[in-house]
Amino acid sequence: MKKLFIDGKWVDTGKTLDVNRPYDNSLVDTICVASVEDTEKAIQAAFKAKAIMKNLTAAERGQILDNVAALIDRDKEEIAQIITAEAGKGLLFSRGEAGRTVENFKFAADEARRLGGELIPFDASASGANRFGYYKHYPIGVVGAITPFNFPLNLVAHKVGPAIAAGNAVILKPASSTPLTSVKLVELLLEAGLPPEGINLVVGSGSVVGNAMVESELINMITFTGSPGVGLGIKSKAGIKKVTLELGSNSAAIIHEDADIKYAVPKCVIGGFANSGQVCISIQRIYIHESRYDEFRNMFVDAVKASAYGDPESEKTLVGPMIDENEAARAESWIKAAVAGGAKVAVGGGRKGTMLEPTVLEDVTEDMTVIREEAFAPLVCIMKYKTLDEAIEKVNDSQFGLQAGIFTNDIKNAFTAIDELEVGGVMVNDMPTFRVDQMPYGGLKLSGTGREGPKFAIEEMTELKTVMINLN
Questions:
Q1: Is 191 among the catalytic positions?
Q2: Domain assignments of the chain as residue spans, ordered by start
């Protein structure tokens, strides 16, 4: 049984939940669950720890984060096994997540050491003569981090790392289906030298633990990754505190007439089906120029048929289980509804428990749920277009706007897409699923507010203070 970490101590709350493997529903471990009272204790502890965290020097914060990176690297195989067990992610991809997180904490350490401010040229104003000044970043105070199941280490790191780098105290609420990776991370943070008061770990439902965090006046910021419905609910309940939201997408790739199809196909397979499509920037829509449709379609379908599907503990697995059977059944129902509306299944479509076959749909229409909503499943829809303007219009006809990709060998076409696509990131000659952890990451419309990436998250997690010295 795993305990929670509250007010500098590992705590047995007396109530537990089971953490099961998505692949076969076998028990991985149990973990304590927080009540409203437990959550309030964690909030109070974090509030009291603000001064401790604020007084850490840039060198100390940077060293702690570098230490965490080294410890994750030391234990990366153990961590990968935990991720695969509780999230059902293919082992190869779990190892990749652990490796990315090492980098992520190193980036946060670098930003901790360079966090500062900037001189203000007061004398640029007629009334600013003989005045000297600057602005400086100060910690926002207490950061409440609410994280999802699909990257139970790296998406936690994207919130915890910058919060520590900025000098904030943290309350971490991981997804209830994947809390064990966060327990391991807290252990490593403590081993790395983080003051115990600086981190609190609480596990429980959004209606209990999440609401207590969101509505607390002692928490200065909520950073959330998850569904649009929950994100909008957080925004409505949070009051004046700062809120950043990463809410997902129905990401699209454009295969233009001058694209290298052999190059594009394997990237689109990985982009659409890695982690069973349970990635915020997973490819859900592929728009293919009509002159290249048959060529791309045949190669893509053959590649999906050949992709490894099954036990996530196999190093070859691309598509493993979805996080639970309800999610798999939901995605299956969307596929059936699309077929009833005239879509055709090019490959896949079947389901057994949490295992949904990697599925490609064609002859879909833009009003279908599989196009309009976020599937978050191993499901890709392929469609034809005539002109690049038409493709861009279809990509933009979405309530989301996180990332998009375009495959083209014409630089003018690339820049047209860069300028006209209504998304937070455009990947040229790559899948929209591409991300490195130091880049600014976030979206437009219902994909959220704010940006992640250590440098950019730190800006969200600090307050600017302006200083002016009158020399007159």
A1: no
A2: 4-247+447-470, 252-437
Residue reference for tokens 């990463």 = 246
C-alpha angle 406-257-273 in degrees, rounded to nearest 5: 45
Q: In this prediction, what percent of the chain has a pLDDT beyond 70?
A: 100
Per-residue model confidence (pLDDT) at position 361: 98
The amino acid sitting at 61 is: R
How far is the C-alpha of 79 from the C-alpha of 304, rounded, in Å?
29
In sequence order, which residues have a C-beta less than 8 Å from that of residue 37 and are 6 or more positions away?
A: none
The architecture that CATH gives domain 252-437 is: 3-Layer(aba) Sandwich (3.40)
Q: How far is CA 92 from CA 86, 99, 181, 234, 310, in A?
A: 15, 11, 16, 34, 13
CATH class of the structural domain 4-247+447-470: alpha beta
pTM of the model: 0.97
Tell me the pLDDT of the chain averaged across its residues: 98
- Identified catalytic residue from 246, 327, 332, 362: 246
Q: What is the dihedral of CA 11, 17, 22, 27, to 10 degrees?
A: 90
- Model confidence pLDDT, tens digit, residues 349-361: 999 999 999 999 9
Q: Could you report the per-residue pLDDT of 42-90, keeping only the tens digit for each?
A: 999 999 999 999 999 999 999 999 999 999 999 999 999 999 999 999 9
C-beta of residue 86 within 8 angstroms of C-beta of residue 19: yes
Q: Is 280 a catalytic residue?
A: yes
Query: Concatenated DSSP letters for 375-414?
Result: --SSEEEEEEESSHHHHHHHHHSSSEESEEEEE-S-HHHH
The amino acid that residue 209 corresponds to is V
d(CA 237, CA 56): 32
Q: Can you name the residues that pair with 404 across neighbouring β-strands?
A: 252, 426
Residue among 280, 357, 374, 459 flagged as catalytic? 280
Per-residue pLDDT reduced to its tens digit, 315-343: 999 999 999 999 999 999 999 999 999 99
Can you give the three-state secondary structure of 139-194, one letter per residue?
ECCEEEEECCCCCCCHHHHHHHHHHHHCCCEEEEECCCCCCHHHHHHHHHHHHCCC
**What size, in residues, is the chain?**
472
Confidence tier at 119 by pLDDT (50, 70, 90): very high
| Element spanning 117, H or E | strand 117-119
